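Q: Please design a sequence for this.
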């Protein structure tokens, strides 16, 4: 799968946006955008979220974790069971511990609210995966420095 930098450059070019224009949209320096595209710098969570919204793709797609730019959801069933859907989402995402949260608080959510909750869970887990990759990359750099 493509790296974040490759995806960002492809998406930016497909929308016919220059690096300068993108830097203004994101309120970043032009060099930051350039470094993102060369995979020399990683975006903040806020920047990642803004890019996802701007290009209308999932954060997982931007990070190169999937080749599917969109997540689809179809919650049009009249007998919609929000708790079952939330449990399914959490199971699919590998979440097994709710800490002190009572899932019953979510029982009256409508399909749109459950979809928003799903996106929030995905965003959080994508961010945590992103942070883990970042820490692994930094550790690798540190070990390379130690070897020299």
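A: Design:
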């Amino acid at each position: 799968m493509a790296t974040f930098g490759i995806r960002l450059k492809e998406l930016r070019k497909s929308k016919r946006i220059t690096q300068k224009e993108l830097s203004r949209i994101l309120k970043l320096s032009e060099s930051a955008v350039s470094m993102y595209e060369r995979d020399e710098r990683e975006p903040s969570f806020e920047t990642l979220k803004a890019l996802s919204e701007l290009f209308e793709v999932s954060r997982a797609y931007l990070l190169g974790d999937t080749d599917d730019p969109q997540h689809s959801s179809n919650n049009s069933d009249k007998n919609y069971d929000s708790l079952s859907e939330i449990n399914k989402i959490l199971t699919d995402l590998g979440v097994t511990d709710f800490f002190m949260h009572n899932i019953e608080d979510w029982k009256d959510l409508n399909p749109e609210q459950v979809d928003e909750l799903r996106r929030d869970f995905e965003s959080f887990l994508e961010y945590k995966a992103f942070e883990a990759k970042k820490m692994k990359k930094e550790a690798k750099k540190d070990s390379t420095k130690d070897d020299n």
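Q: Thanks. Anything notable?
A: The chain has seven helices and no strands. The chain has a mean pLDDT of 80.
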